[in-house]
Amino acid sequence: MSYWSWDSSLSIGIDVIDKQHRRIVDYLNELDVAHREKNREVVSEVLIGLVDYTETHFAFEEGLMENLGYPLSDSHKKVHASFAAHINKLVEQHEEGREVTRIVMSELQIWLTRHIKLDDKDYALFAKKNSWNNKSWLHAIVGRFFLDKRQ
Questions:
Q1: Owning domain of residue 140
Q2: DSSP string of 51-86, one letter each residue
Q3: Quick one: pLDDT at residue 67?
């Protein structure tokens, strides 16, 4: 039995973002297993991976919002930064020997659920309403990131 199961209420309808959110849920489930097995070394490895992946996800999401011209992009970034700082403090406490694994799991699950259902669904709706030129909005944005602008 897993700690947290993905369900459709967490989908924002943007496949790449939904996959990233599912990966964060997977990390929480891996963290739960390591914690139940009392394997502090694996807990540390999973925490590092979880934090790194989450921060990378935040950066990806923020880039999409910025390129879309999402009007709440700056406040969304601040929410990400604040939560990342909080989780990083908990990870530091773990590294100092404190037991914070369940706190990290609980807070991340609660925060992520709320964040996806409110903030992320809002920018997804904005993105879908403001797509352009018969291309998917994501295709257009990814093209901006990766295509040579001289073409």
A1: 12-146
A2: HHHHHHHHHHHHHHHHHHT-TTHHHHHHHHHHHHHH
A3: 85
